[in-house]
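Sequence, please.
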């Protein structure tokens, strides 16, 4: 059903949300167990199914510990048109920057960046996966890219 590459992918996804090795491992393990217990149900794409379960369980976990940040969504975002620019892709980021960036992201930003930049899902695929409007995701990526570009440049200047 799942190979080593799938398991590593699931772990990286869980870690992008939790930023904690133990919690990421627990999220992956518990969701694989759930799938194995439901062996009578045929799942077309088990990795995506498990990723969805990981996300839901992480949200439940953070709600219980009251660490999950609630975002307010501006209704005007749904009527505006957004264009994804390649600014973030053109920035050279070293290993120190990556660690510094990850520490600054909240779980929603971390998940979005992971799915978009690492797993290379399209915005439409992420929107369907998260049941979130496409414009909202484009807006989040746009704001995230601007903030990260500025932050990385400041961080690199400070290290010089």
């Amino acid at each position: 059903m799942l190979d080593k590459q799938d398991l590593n992918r699931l772990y990286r996804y869980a870690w992008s949300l939790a930023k904690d090795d133990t919690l990421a491992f627990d999220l992956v393990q518990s969701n694989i167990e759930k799938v194995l217990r439901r062996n009578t149900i045929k799942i077309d794409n088990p990795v995506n199914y498990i990723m969805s379960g990981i996300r839901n369980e992480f949200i439940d976990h953070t709600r219980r510990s009251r660490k999950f940040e609630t975002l307010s969504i501006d209704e005007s975002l749904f009527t505006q048109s957004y264009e994804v620019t390649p600014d973030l892709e053109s920035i050279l980021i070293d290993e120190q920057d990556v660690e510094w960036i990850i520490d600054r992201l909240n779980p929603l930003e971390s998940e979005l960046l992971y799915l978009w930049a690492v797993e290379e899902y399209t915005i439409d695929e992420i929107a369907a996966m998260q049941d979130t409007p496409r414009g909202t995701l484009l807006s989040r990526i746009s704001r995230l890219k601007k903030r990260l570009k500025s932050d990385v440049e400041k961080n690199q200047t400070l290290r010089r």
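Helices lie at 4-18, 21-37, 46-64, 95-104, 107-118, 123-130, 134-159.
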